[in-house]
Each structure stands twice: as C-alpha cells, then as structure tokens.
Design brief:
By secondary structure, the protein is α+β, with helices and mostly antiparallel strands. The chain folds into 2 domains: 119 residues, Gcn5-related N-acetyltransferase (GNAT) (Aminopeptidase), CATH 3.40.630; 119 residues, Aminopeptidase, CATH 3.40.630. It has 8 helices and 13 strands. Strands 1, 2, 3, 4, 5, 6, 7, 8, 9, 10, 11, 12 and 13 form a 13-stranded mixed β-sheet that branches. Strand 2 and strand 3 form a beta hairpin.
Length: 320
C-alpha cells in the first residue's frame, strides 16, 4: 500500500468518525425530553419491564399508586427511549450546635426529588440519552425550588457514572449479613431484664404509625422524611413494619432471604436476627441495614450551590 493510499484511508476513516459523531449530536438534538402523559403508560411499562425485568404486578402497583405525572421521558422518532420517575420528598437537616457533644438545633426541611426507575432502551445506550434526560430533570427541579435530586445506584459502575454527572455520595448505612444460625444462636439468653427468645412477639404496626415513630427516632439526625403515602405503597408491595421494645424496623422476604431495609433504635443486629429466625425459621439468610458509614446508599446533586450539611443522612427504602 502506497503512502498516498494510506493518506486517503486516514482521511476516509476520519470522515467516517466525524459522521458518527455528527449523527450522535444531531440525534440528541432531535431528542425530546419532557414529562410523560397518561397516554404513554403502556409504552413506559414496556420499557421498564424490558430494562429491569420487574413483574407486571409491581410495575402496575407503582404506576397505579404514583401515576406518571412525575415521570420524565426522552422521545425520538415518536418512540420513548428513556424514562426517569421522580418522587417528591423532604430532607430534614439538623445543624450541629457543638461539634464536641454533637447536640443539634433547628430542624430544617429541604425539598428533594427522588429518582427511580431510570432506564434507557438498550439500542440507545452510550449516546448520552440518560445524561440529557437527567439534565432536564435537574434543571426543572432547581427551577421549581427543590434543593436537589437524589438516587440509589444499583452498583459501583452506576455510582461512578452518576458521580461524573455531578452527584455526590451523601447517604450511608451499615449492612450485616447472617448466612446461618450459628452466627447469632444464643445471642438472646435470659437475663433479669430480658425476655426469653421464645416469648418474644413481633408487633406489626400500620405504615402510618411507623412513619410517625420513625420521625421521632430520627429527629436528631439528617434524614429523608418519606411521607405516609410512600409507606402505604411499600406495605402494599409486601414490606412489613414492626415495633419491638423501643426500636422499629421493616422487613421483606424473598428468595430464601429476610431483608431488613431499616432498623432504628437500640436493638442489636444479632438480637434482631435471632428474633426473625425464631418467627421465620424457613429463611436461611438475613440482611440487616441500619444507620452507619460502611456503605454508600445514596447520591445527591444539589441545586443552586446549596451547601452540603457536611454530615451523612439516613437513606432507606430506596426500592432498590
């Protein structure tokens, strides 16, 4: 091959690359990002199911409960190619009065949007579609005086992706695993001030009461303040809310697992694992999540230069 042929090949290759980039840029310009309408429910459900594989029952329950009025869609050639649901909530922030004794004052409430079911059609990934859609969500949130938008990243790859879009780690938790009963057997032995394990009873409470108790327990913390309606939806999907002594917790079951999404109060992980094992002996694996700093459980993108309160919040019930 001559130098002239190589030169022509290089130019051809360069032009081909340019055409691909031009196509992607023009394609994004033709994208229409906006809120969904009720006439697009079927198309939204189809994309959700294709990307996440959730059951029709769960998707129908979610959309029936929350609707699509707060769902953003990205359309190209009259086809929905990406979706992102938003759920309005609040972030309660306590300011530190004395850093040495960590006492708090003046509970502050900030409005936030929770992002959920962010999905892009496989044929349109890697083209900046979700980046463009989330930019629209973010701009509208800031214009509507929200403090920020936040989400739960399903894996480390997505967490890194969202960091590149301006999201920062803000919510953390501890997560304990109990793979067999030997790990917690005998952790609730009788003492003068403790009931035997066999006499313990799970006290199931309604979602509305759980929400009120949750706020009382967390009122010295920074936390996402989900409303009663949100907890009612979770209850419909099979999550149970419980009270034991001065603690509250929620749990769900599936695939031989008990998953405690939230544990608040003084009860230890070991004791709760023993309690759940006694009441639900058919499950072999128990996961317990509580306040802590071991794992990042949520990321946030603040609006309008809002200053991070410089302490992590408690973020549970991400419906992950």
């Amino acid at each position: 091959m001559t130098e002239e042929s190589l030169h022509i090949l290089a130019i051809t290759s360069s032009n081909h690359t340019f055409r691909i980039l031009k196509y992607c840029i023009l394609g994004l310009k033709k994208m229409l990002n906006r809120k969904a309408t009720k006439y697009e429910v079927s198309e939204i459900k189809k994309l959700w199911n294709e990307v996440f594989g959730d059951s029709d029952d769960y998707i129908n329950r979610f959309i029936t409960h929350f609707g699509v009025k707060n769902c953003y869609v990205s359309k190209k050639n009259k086809e929905i190619v990406a979706i992102a649901f938003t759920i309005p909530t609040t972030f309660s922030i306590n300011e530190v009065q004395d850093s040495k004794i960590q006492k708090f004052k003046d509970l502050k409430i900030q409005r936030l949007l929770y992002l959920y079911a962010c999905a892009t059609h496989p044929d349109y990934r890697g083209q900046g579609v979700m980046k463009s859609l989330l930019a629209t969500v973010y701009k509208n949130a800031c214009d509507e005086d929200y403090t920020g938008i936040f989400l739960y990243a399903a894996n480390q790859f997505l967490a890194n992706y969202y960091r590149k879009l301006g999201f920062e780690d803000c919510f953390f938790r501890n997560h304990s695993f109990y793979y067999n009963r030997k790990e917690y057997k005998g952790s609730t032995k009788n003492t003068k001030n403790e009931l035997s394990l066999r006499s313990l009873r799970l006290n199931i409470i309604p979602p509305e009461l759980y929400q009120k108790k949750r706020v009382r327990i967390l009122n010295n913390s920074c936390f996402i303040n989900w409303n009663e309606d949100f907890f009612r939806f979770l209850n419909q999907t099979g999550i149970q809310f419980c009270e034991y002594e001065n603690s509250i917790f929620s749990f769900r079951t599936g695939f031989n697992n008990i998953i405690v999404d939230e544990l608040l109060g003084k009860i230890s992980h070991n004791k709760l694992a023993s309690l759940l094992s006694e009441h639900l002996p058919e499950f072999e694996v128990i996961h317990i999540r509580s306040m802590g700093n071991d794992f990042c459980s949520g990321q946030i993108k603040w609006c309008n230069d809002f200053k991070n309160p410089d302490k992590s919040g408690w973020f549970a019930f991400a419906m992950e």
